[in-house]
Amino acid sequence: MDCIFCKIVEGTIPSKKVFENEHVIAFHDIQPAANVHTLIIPKKHIADMNGVEEADLFLIGEIHRAAQQIAREQGVSESGYRLVNNCGKDSGQVVFHLHYHLLGGEKLGALNSK
């Protein structure tokens, strides 16, 4: 498999980790879209949210618990942060390994809507 996030999990590609436990790893995004921009991923390869099976649902909880801790540690839990998951090509997903973006550390613009 040629997944960049799996290589980060394996340690063959370096990352600037901010969190890790048995199931989840989080690291700084190399192209940050906000002052705080962390990617949170399961260690298990799942292509996107549509690939999450019932046995994997605990991973979503693990990701959200990690997000809470990271937000506290990065100093954005009180001021506010955005937790985003893009699912599929049309959403803007570029790396097809389930991941969430934790964004904060500045006033974020409103999400565009039609």
UniProtKB/TrEMBL annotation:
Domain named HIT is located at 4-113
Which GO MF terms does the UniProt record name?
A: catalytic activity
- Which Gene3D superfamilies did the record assign? HIT-like
At the top level, the lineage of the source is Bacteria
List, from the UniProt record, the residues annotated as the active site of this protein: H99 (tele-amp-histidine intermediate)
Residue numbers covered by motif Histidine triad motif: 97-101
What InterPro entries has UniProt attached to this entry? Histidine_triad_HIT, HIT-like, HIT-like_sf
Task: Cite the SUPFAM superfamilies for this sequence.
Answer: HIT-like
Task: Name the PANTHER family on file.
Answer: HISTIDINE TRIAD HIT PROTEIN
Q: Indicate what this protein is called per its UniProt record.
A: Histidine triad nucleotide-binding protein
Organism per entry? Paenibacillus cremeus
